[in-house]
Every structure is written in structure tokens, then in C-alpha cells.
Amino acid sequence: MKATGVVVEYNPFHNGHYYHLQETKKATGADCIIAVMSGNFLQRGEPALLSKWKRTKMALLGGADLVIELPYAYATSHAPRFASGSIYLLQSLGAESFCFGSESGDAELFSKTHEWLDDKQETYQELIRSFLNKGLSYPSAASRAYESLDIPLALDLSKPNNILGFEYVRASRELGSHIRPVTIKRKNADYHDVMLGTGNIASATAIREAIFTSDAEQAAPYMPSYTFELLAQEQVEKGTLMNWERFYPLLRYQLLSTTPSEINRYYEVEEGLEYRMIEAMKKSDSFDTFMKHLKTKRYTWTRLQRACLHILNKVQKEEMLAILDSPPSYIRVLGMTGRGREYLGSVKKSLDLPLVTTVSKHDLSGLRMEAKASLVYAQGAARNTLEAEKEEFNTPPVMV
């Protein structure tokens, strides 16, 4: 069987994601689509809207055949780590290609850009450092450095999906992977759009905005019916859909009850950020207000949210770096279709990594971190918290 991979968060799964999966099948001719999906916390430093189990079911109903979990350490890291962990897992499962959405829509352009940059790497890194010294965030510094090189190509690295695609291709090259990059041009909605707009495709950002600030029914035309039903089911079971405001009291307690030196031990808390966080917390009655007090030119909103996640989950630098020092050490199966099960059976004996379907049967540092994060995630539920806490250990892979 021929497999291709996609890297996803599905927060939530919408019509644009469905389009991407269908076009991926057409572009690659794959028999099996493997989705590497973030767990309960995401790369933008946010809690997922609903549990990874509900999001897995959405993925399988939408066209994925096998869903595996991107471990917390990679799922909540900056783009290069996020990409390298994802591509490594796809390579480990024998995927022949990976397919990502981009504003460019030209996979060859990504590869050619990397080839050109290989010859300019020293200058590129020097330029990044110079822009960082001017107080820019890393993404802005990297984008400005890229523009300064005047590369004779048209890849726009100011666009969010192009940036991620650039990192996926970089990860594949650095791993010496045989996996072929394929890209589908992003359709209609921009990644950061906050308005639903016309047509039937909107960004996940706009859909979440509608869900939390207006009538969720307005977002229904932009997602498959099963997504809307699973969102409603989660609302009934847990009394809420998750966002940062659900966790703000826990974060507030952590920051106000912990010394600055202790806060500095948490991953991504650097350069005295702990002092700024404590002061911002003292004058903020919501997570949104807190972030607005905290935001600076130096740090992106996403970067600050990730630091908050690690404080919330009490993930220390030493613990995180010990995991990130090596590629992912296991393959955690979240769900599969009959075709996904068939593919997994065909490659199972050749896998170099342990295959995890039941967490309690394995003792791995990445799984321990995942379990701790899932217990914290369960505290955001408005009801049935004890049941939510058991999900990590009691939920078998979703079968569709």
C-alpha cells in the first residue's frame, strides 16, 4: 500500500481541511493518508477547542485513514521542532510523501529555495542575528533576513502556511528523508482571517471566533455536519469548549504563587520574561487582557502563549530539552479506518519505534509528559472532570 502524510491540528476540522485531504489523495495517488495530529495543546500555544479523541474522529470521517499523535514536546514547540517531529514520524511509518497546504502551491519552489539558501546559510544566519538584535521576533527576523538576500525566487515567507511548508521541507532534507514534498494551494480563506466571509471555506481562526463571540450556528456552513455534531457533543459532555480563558485561573495561581526563579525554570521563559509575566498578571482579570499587557515587539503572541502553556503544565527546560534532544521515540495511534488498520498491519513488523495503543503499557518520558498535560487539560472541563481525566488512559484508538 502507498501512504502519504499530512500534519494537522484540526481545531476544528472544517471544509478547508476536507478539501485538503481530498486533493492530497488526488495529487499523491495514496492508498492511505496518515495524519500526524497535535494532542490537547497546540503549536500556537493554545488548548485545543475539543479533545484529541473528538478531533481524531473528525479526521477519520473527513478522509484520513490513520491518525497518530505528535507528542506534546514537538506539538508545542516553534515551527522547526514542530516540523521535524512530524516528518520524522511520517518517515518512521513508511510514508512515501507528505502534503501540506500553502499560499504558494508550488512544491518545487520550496525545494529550490532551500537549495539556494544552502549556499547563503552563513550570511542568512548573520542577518537573522542582526534583526534579532534590533528587537524583532524570530519569525520577523527570519523573514526580513530572507528578503534581504534578494533570492531570485518568488516564495513568500511572510505567509504562515508557506513558513510551515518551508520548515517541513527543511526537516525532510535534514533527516535525509526520501519522502517527497507535495503542496496544495490554500483555497479562499487566509490563515489569520477572523471573519467568516463568503463561500463555504473559512479559516479555523474565524470559525473559533464565531463559536466564542457569536452564534455558533453562523459557523455551521463552513464545516462538515459531523464536526458541528461533535462540537455539540463535547459541549454537552464537558459543559464547555476549551480556550485559554478556561485555564486562566490555573495560570494565574501558578504565576502568583511561584517565585520568579522558579518560573524561569519553565521552558521558553527567557530574558527576564518571568518578571513581566508576574506584573502583567497582577493587573489582568482575563487571559486576553494579560496577553495584551505582556505582548512586546520582541515576542510574538504565539511565542508568549507557548511559554504560558509550559508554565501551566509545569514543563521545565531540562525535561523538555531531554526529550527534544532526540527524535520522537514512539508512535501513538489515536485512531484508524479499516484501510488505516490494513496499512498499519503491513508495516508493523518493520517499525523501528514502539507502537503505542495503550498508554499504561509503556513507560516513556514523552508519554509521561503527555499524560500530565492531558490531566491538566481535563481541568478546563466545566463538568465531568473526573471522566475527562480518565480519557488519556481509558480511551482506545478511535475506529471509523
From TrEMBL:
It is found in: Cytoplasm. It is an enzyme of class 6 (ligase). It catalyses: cytidine(34) in elongator tRNA(Met) + acetate + ATP = N(4)-acetylcytidine(34) in elongator tRNA(Met) + AMP + diphosphate. It comes from the Bacteria. It comes from Fictibacillus nanhaiensis. Belongs to the TmcAL family. ATP binds at residues 7-20, 101, 161, 186. Its EC number is 6.3.4.-. HAMAP family: TmcAL. It holds the Pfam family HIGH_NTase1. InterPro entries: Rossmann-like_a/b/a_fold, tRNA(Met)_cyd_acetate_ligase. Keywords: ATP-binding, Cytoplasm, Ligase, Nucleotide-binding, RNA-binding, tRNA processing, tRNA-binding. This is tRNA(Met) cytidine acetate ligase. Catalyzes the formation of N(4)-acetylcytidine (ac(4)C) at the wobble position of elongator tRNA(Met), using acetate and ATP as substrates. First activates an acetate ion to form acetyladenylate (Ac-AMP) and then transfers the acetyl group to tRNA to form ac(4)C34.
